[in-house]
Amino acid sequence: MMDLQSTLNWSGALRRQLVATPELADWLQAQSKYEVTPTVIQDWFDALRPQEYTEEALKKQLRLVRRRVFFTLMVRDVHSRASLAEVSTAMSFLADLSVSKAYEWVSHALSEAHGTPIDPKTGLPLEMLIVAMGKWGGYELNVSSDIDLITLYDGEGETQGRRPRSYHEYFGRLTQRLLPILSQTNAFGHVFRTDLRLRPDGDVGPLAWSLNALENYFLHQGREWERYAWIKGRLIQVKSHAESQPQYAQQRLENLRTPFVYRKYFDFDALASLRDLRERIRQDWERKVIAKDSLESTHNIKLGDGGIREIEFVVQLNQLIRGGRWPSLQQQNLHAAVHAQVQADLMDDELARRLLNAYDFLRRTEHFLQYKEDEQTHLLPTDADTYARLAYSFGLSTDSFTQQLNEHRQFVHQSFQDAFRIAGVEKKTRATTAIAPTLPSPPMSSSDHAELEAQSQQLLHSNRIQRLPPHSLKRLQRLLPLLRQAACATDHPVETNKRLHTIMEQIASRSAYLALLLEYPETIQRMATIAGASPWAAHYLAQYPLVLDSLIEWKDLLEAPDFTALAEQLRLELDACVLPNGQADIERQMNLMRDLQHQVSFQLLAQDIAGLLTVEVLADQLSALADLLIEETIYRTWPLAQPRQQPPDPPTPQFAVIAYGKLGGKELGYASDLDLVFLYDDPNQDQVEKYVRLGRRMVSWLSTMTSSGRMYEVDMRLRPDGDAGLIAVSIDGFEKYQSQQAWSWEHQAITRARFVAGDPQIGARFEKVRQDILLQKRDPIAFKREVITMREKIAQAHPNKSDLFDIKHDRGGMVDIEFMTQYLVLCYAHRYPALLNNLGNIALLGIAAEHQLIPRTLSQQAIQAYRTFRRYQHNLRLQGAAVARLPLHQVQAERDAVMALWQAVMN
Fold first, then answer.
1. Burial, 421: exposed, middle or buried (Cβ in 10 Å; 0-12, 13-18, 19+)?
2. pLDDT tens digits for range 436-465
3. Which of 183, 237, 658, 726 is most buried by its number of CB atoms within 10 A?
């Protein structure tokens, strides 16, 4: 049996309680052996239920259960049997339970007097929304703490009772009557002191706010510290009418809270305010210390240097700046927030470990201080004896306790001072880093300088810019000289400046983007270099300004993407996109995947412009990105293909995605379509409709235009029977079609098809079908005629009436190389199995030459021509060309090489 003496030695509150209620000692000794869980607290509450249920009886019941929770946790904690998580969760659940029971009582009482508010959307009783703030919101409540809450309601109207009240009056009155049930002190003590000061307008605002008023407040008056406070805002579950459906209002509140706290873009607009907030935290504390002429700076473990509040600031800074982009960071609980930041590679393991160790030590110390007299205090004892008893209660000597406390606080304070560096948003003062070695720009003429000035004036007087709020216009005016200066460092200043202005016109309405450029001036030169190098890249920046923040850390931007890590993080972020009812937030998930696609594509674009990637490597990387996103799309859309509200059956679909065309050949470009075929292998015919729905969902998921843009255009015409066929086909049906019905051009297409995502067993079966098709013996002469006929149809479908050479479609271009390769594979793979593998045109032509199917010299010349054509095509696309055409003399040698090989192979 647990000895209470060590707890009694420390806690005067426990000594007084046992004098008043001696029987509590035996109860505590018995109960403190077991963890205090929400279920245990609920059982204690139910066991204390009075026969006659009055408001006074409820007050007594709540205070008695609070007494049990408080003292049981105390005994367990002092004996090192309770973790910080157990203590904080138990107190937070007690607060949830107490508020919900008090709300239920007052709501029924007011409904009897004034009638029940009715939800105008459902016609059902309207519940109040109660938001737990601060540590309560994060399930981290202290053992002797206030609870911070905000009360809200949805809709306007008037009750229909004997004494009707407007909803504003009704819910204000409900809040007013709710609080004393919790905070009044009587013979049994109190439950929780309550604090409403975090509501909009604080003490001068209404007690209860409508969601319409809250929305208006967030849009026009919400301040940075309120965003900081609402990070921990958690809607507690309260319900006083069985038939009410509060989830509609709950969802609306979440739709207001999330964008207020977490901006979709990295929120550099908030940096100055957050720096001010950090400084204000420090200055406010210093003023209090000076005013009290005390040692509180060292003795207050919450507000003093290296205290709990500084840890919270370090952790929540990253949440505020980046949480809108990464939903996994949107955690109310501090431990969960730190782990999410480690997972997202925003905080290193060692920093996280030390911060959490310090947090746990300081929070446990805080609890011990509050156990002493059941007071909300954060002050360490100033007399040596009490301080020694505190250390002893921890199981430590005075010196050891002091050493650990000081080490934790010193580390925390240094981390607080370095918070913006830790978050990766510290102001940079170093010189701008060049993107890639460039030749010195020619000196500009006075006419060019005049043109740049004229462009700036034209931008300032455009309709869109004229509608900007004053602070955004002022920021833009500060940026324009910096833009001109950056443009002057490029080869074509006037054109580059024009492109930069197009970007500015698109992003100026989002002041955070302007703040980013002013905060990190080196990003302006990087943006200018990219925009100057490629009009297509400039258009990409204007279209997806979300990627601008990646210009801050140029070294990271130039590193190769880690697709394994990206896939893991993406799944975490998508899992975190959850509606209040627990369902997946599909719109946010689709946007998040589009944002990732744009960010990684821009990363590759920057590396491309910097000259770090060959066309082949770039295509491989873009194809790997598409593979990743298709795999995740299957995972996200399979639950959506089920009959309503049914779990996925089977849990993982027997379904595979086959890529043809550019993705199939790993030759994807920045804006390439995806040619896809969907296969399934399920003997249960009842499942067919599910796989068809899955296919439709996937196409929609990949190609629908959302607020974040579109991921990919999807083309399904290469499936069996084309547009007339089912969107998903069984692998058996696919095999039968390919062997008995497919046209020769479909066999040409399958030479560069590959399994990219889904069930690998179906992928293996597809590869066998593909190889069986390629291994068929064909009459080279007859098949050659079919290939030539198809080549002529392709040429007719892409007429070129210009004087330029179309490097893809004209005779002697890329299509000729592709057709020759396909012909060689389909005619000779049965003799030379090395041709079976989907290795790409360059490798396959090399294999054909090794087996003397084509002259080695002509093969090498055609391979070099193909590489040159791909490079020209890529560069022309970056320059914004709709089609890849060049003067014939520029590629005459390459065209001649292709025509020579065509003559040798196809004639």
1. exposed
2. 434 345 567 788 889 999 999 999 999 999
3. 658
